[in-house]
Structure formats: C-alpha cells, structure tokens
Write a structure and sequence with these properties.
The protein is of the alpha/beta class. It has a domain of about 90 residues. It is about 25% helix and about 20% strand. Strands 2-1-3-4 form a four-stranded parallel sheet, covered by helices on one side. The protein is globular and about 60 Å long. The termini are far apart.
Length: about 290
C-alpha cells in the first residue's frame, strides 16, 4: 500500500500520531511518506491538533482519507497496536528529541481544555519510557497532568534514571507538589519548569512558596508560570497573580484567552509582563507606557 501523511498544523512540532502511524505501516511493508498533491494513494491520514488551524482544501487523490486529532473536534484515539509502537522519528529528521506520553488523563476538567473529555478524569500511567525513548539527550513529555497520577513517584524516578534532559511541555500542576515530590523533581535534569495559575479564585500562594523553598531551582527565569487572563478574571485579579508570582521569585507569562476580543488593558498587561526587559525595569503596571 501507498500511505500519505498530512500534518495539517505544519511541521513546527513533530506530530506524534503521524509518527506512530508511519512506524506501524512501515512495519507492514507499506510505502509511507508525507502527502504530495499530484500523487495517488491507497490511504491518506490527516492529523490536526489545534482547532484554530485552518483545514486544507486541496483535492486528495486517495481511496481512503482518515482525519484525526483534537483539531477536528473528535475524541477518537489510535488503535492499541499503533498507540504503543515506537514512533518513526525519521519522519521529522530536523528534531532530535524523544516525544511521548507516560500518563494520560487529568482530573481538572478546565472549561478551556479538552483533555478530561478525551482522556478521562483520572491521570493514569499508560507507558514506560522505553516505549518512545531510544537514548535521546532530551525527552519532551506531552503528559497533561503527570503529577496527578498515583504512580507519579515511579514515573519521576524513571525520568531521573534516564539522565536525559526532561521538558514537561504541558507544565507541572503546582497543586500536586509536596516536599517529597519537589525533592524528586530536584533529581531530574530540567532546564525550565512550567506551571500555570489559571483560576484567580484558587489561592496557590502557599504551593508556589513551598516549591520556591525546597526546589533546587533558584533562577526565576527557570520557573515560569502561565497566567491565564480574559477568562473569568478581572484586571485586578490578573495583576494580583502577576505581583505575587514575581515576589515569590517566579517568571510570570501572560496568556490571553480570545485575544482578538480581549480588552485593551489586558493586551497592554501582556506586553508589559512578557517583555522581560520592561517587566524587570518597571515595577508597577501603572508606570508602564504602552506608547513607548
């Protein structure tokens, strides 16, 4: 069979499902490559992660076209024999890292996130590191909420023993950190930790203080926190989170929900906080002049 693959989002980040599909079909002896518009295929897979990515409107010459991914609004998953196969890293030779999931699911069920609906309300271990890691120097984990997993200690130990640099691409849930977990995280090679403070009604000051106290990371540039704005929060509540994080030694980063329709003051807040030179030089938002 001749198999075509379409990464609808582009090639700015490896598409893990396509890498697994490629590995599966190559194992069957099929010809697999990225789709070319003038060729005829037996089967074409289209994968789209982001809902805002426009779908392609090209004519696809194939007997079968399969669409998948959260970008198409579905909750379908890969068949087990494809899900648990070593990804075909040769599909994206420009990337040298390992990519995969050790856990799936999240108990948070945030209104702006599809993970709970798609993967379930419980974080559970779904794989060992050897399923997608072949010794690469960097491992990019795609887990939505690794620390919510009851087996988190075993998972973190496995990451530490790998000796690889670990990138928790979806962040660490600060609400699941305690002193033993923080000390385990200290044994893992991490260039930068990512957290989130999405809901201003949750006071996470104590949790962030605990991590700051016991973490081996002292540079604020290595402790980033995404602050969601324009989603069930006021400007005052946005500022309070920013100031609290900065005072605790973290690097806040403003994320604007529905940016085209966000208030001008929220867009100015984003410009102030996310421009590191200005943010460090200007202590109060009221002193920031967006015209400059």
């Amino acid at each position: 069979m001749k198999i075509g693959l379409i990464d609808v989002d582009g090639h700015n980040f490896p598409n893990l499902p396509l890498m697994k599909i490629s590995a599966y079909h190559k194992r069957q002896g099929h010809e697999v490559k990225f789709w070319m518009g003038l060729e005829q295929y037996d089967m074409v897979y289209k994968s789209k992660v982001f809902t805002h990515t426009p779908d392609m409107d090209h004519v696809i010459m194939a007997d079968t076209v399969i669409e998948g991914g959260t970008g198409y609004g579905g909750t379908q998953t890969l068949p087990r024999d494809i899900e648990h196969i070593m990804p075909d890293y040769g599909l994206y030779p420009q990337y040298s890292e390992a990519y995969g999931f050790l856990t799936r699911g999240c108990p948070r069920d945030c209104q702006f996130c599809i993970v709970t609906q798609k993967e379930g309300p419980q974080s559970r271990r779904v794989a060992d590191l050897a399923e997608f890691w072949t010794g690469q120097k960097t491992i990019k984990l795609l887990d939505p909420n690794l620390l919510a997993c009851v087996e988190r200690e075993a998972v973190l130990q496995q990451l530490a023993e790998s000796g690889a640099w670990i990138d928790f691409t979806q962040g660490i849930d600060i609400r699941f950190t305690d002193r033993p977990t923080i000390e385990l995280l200290n044994t893992i090679k991490v260039k930068r930790f990512h957290f989130a403070w999405d809901n201003p009604s949750e006071d996470l000051t104590a949790q962030f203080s605990l991590f700051a106290k016991y973490s081996g990371v002292t540079d604020c540039r290595r402790r980033a926190v995404y602050v969601l704005t324009n989603f069930n929060s006021t400007h005052i509540e946005d500022l309070e989170r920013v100031y609290t994080l900065r005072d605790l030694g973290y690097d806040p980063y403003i994320m604007v929900y529905d940016k085209p329709n966000a208030p001008k003051i929220t867009r100015h807040l984003q410009r102030w906080v996310n421009n590191r030179r200005i943010f460090r030089a200007t202590r109060k938002f009221e002193e920031f002049d967006p015209k400059k």
